[in-house]
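User: Predict the complex with phosphoric acid mono(formamide)ester.
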Amino acid sequence: MVSFKQRDIISIRHFNKEELLYILDLAKQMEQTARMDVLGGKVLASLFFEPSTRTRLSFESAMKRLGGTVIGFAESGITSIAKGESLSDSVRIIEGYCDIIVLRHYLEGSAQLAADVVDVPVINAGDGANQHPTQTFLDLYTILKTKGTLEGLTIGFLGDLKYGRTVHSLVYALSYFGAEMFFISPPSLRMPRDCVEELKDRKVKCHENESLFGISKKLDVIYCTRIQKERFADPVEFEKVRGIYRLSKTMLEEIGIKDDLKILHPLPRVDEMDESLDKTEFAVYFHQARNGVPVRKAILAAVLGVLE
Ligand code: CP
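Assistant: Here is the predicted structure with phosphoric acid mono(formamide)ester placed in the model:
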């Protein structure tokens, strides 16, 4: 039997196919239910050490829509971290004030570190370039809703595959559903080798390309990503790849795509996806961001164990 009660959500690799589908089903129920005060009296600590619009606000909205309350910060400079307090001391203190912690931090492994020192559940809202598991749940939910299935899709991941934590999470989840994956990036931003090796061990058909030309007509989904300027150690290296991909309606018409292609993007976008796409039937990225609320409602309710 599937149970998320009091579990940490650190990496998508900790969940099997049945568990992924359980959350997607619960999210569907959440979307169909106008109001459900199941988290009355519960407190979410929302701790964001990196900028966020979608993840933070959709978690906070989800918590409040389920009747719970939120404490926390979106700027660590106003906390005692600025006086030199460690992350592990901070979360040890904060767990005394809440029932669940949602943490975004620039260091890989930070969510696991927090989970190791507190008893309340910790949800990883993005740790450096490592993982962003709740984004994966909403990406899967969006694919399922717009394609009608998760099984046997051909998916092109485009852009910054080195630093893109949403991709690093999503590929493991899609490996359960027989996906064929095309990784399209400049050589300097290829998928991490360990990630590709693990996918191959899972018998996933993976291909690496530098361009969409020649493969675009095979794709059921394009998962576009931003080049993550903030993660480059050397600004010169960023300048070499800045603006390297720019999806537009005209460009896609020229290279050829499936009629029912769907384009996802975790957002924010910078220059990699032209606004000419926004009103096309291919674009589902704004729906994708909106799906953050029912999916995160499902995750909060499941982890806090109120639906069992
Ligand atoms: N998709 C995503 O993580 O967006 P934010 O950085 O705005 O939370």
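The chain has a mean pLDDT of 96.
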